[in-house]
Amino acid sequence: MLGDVRAGLGVSAGWTSLLTAVPVLCFGAAAFAAPWVGRRFGLKRAVASALALLTLGLLLRVVDGPFVVLGGTFVACAGIAVCNVLIPVVVKDSFPTRIGLITGIYTAAMAAGAGLGAALTPPLEALLGSWRGAVGAWALLSAAALVLWLAGARKGVTGRVARTPAGRSLLHSPLAWVMTVFFGLQALLAYTIMGWLPAILGDADVDRTTAGFLLAITVVLGVPVSLVVPPLAARWKSQVGMVLVLGALSLSGVLGLAFAPGSAPALWVLLVGLGMGGMFPLALVMVSLRTVSTSDTARLSAMTQSIGYLIAAAGPFAFGLLRESTGSWTASMIGLAGLVLLLTALGSVAGRNRFV
User: Where are the transmembrane segments (predicted)?
Assistant: First the structure.
């Protein structure tokens, strides 16, 4: 939808790049506050408040001009950020013996929702007559999520995030930093691909409808992958082998998009979707696997996501600016391939059987 939003608002390519970076920046900034929110209000009310904030932001960002779009997006993503940090704590606290299974289920649900967003927003624009209606309509889904959360969390999800023990800081843990950069690079890969894949395919003469469909496939592939990766990862003491396989899939797809995007776009999208779709749930489940207590889980979740998403924020913005300065996607994709190699190396360290 970026092309329609840009045309409707009369904004520059730089503004468009900033819009793609705002969600990741917000995930990083707001994630710092999530453990405090969980301690102050309890998990049930904290997640409910975050879903209400998400709904408000989704509505706000379609009512006015460029600055309101950015502001509303930031508000919506602040709600997402709190949920991102606290849901792993809910999983570890409420399902301590089924961490892998429950993590797989909720990350699969996230992938399915994202895929539906990519696939259905263009038809919604045609149905409702504008990009504002198509984008704003998703507030109905977040409102439904709030209702479901309030109904389902009446029992068992009322505790508060444990307070951090005095004198202990994960900022001094090398493993915590490895996991943070690993999380940041996988998010950078995901948000760069999701933000720019339709444009990459469009410049390779893939029509808009097909490009949107392929983007949806990239995201929806996360559903079956999420149902497989976390349960397997939770059973194995080491996740190094899994990181290597997912890294190889991602690298193959990125290189294909770099040098022959129009020759086999479905294949490159399949490879990227499998690799990218597996790295995210793996990174989330390793937050629980590398910690002993729920307080450690909350702190590691906040650290990996706050700093990690700030790292990731540079990806979509720099990717778009490099494309604009070079006139092609090749340099940007080669740089992305190098980051995939670094991501795989860090994941191999984070995947060893240790605790922060």
Answer: 12-34, 46-63, 69-87, 99-121, 133-153, 174-199, 211-233, 240-260, 266-288, 300-322, 328-350
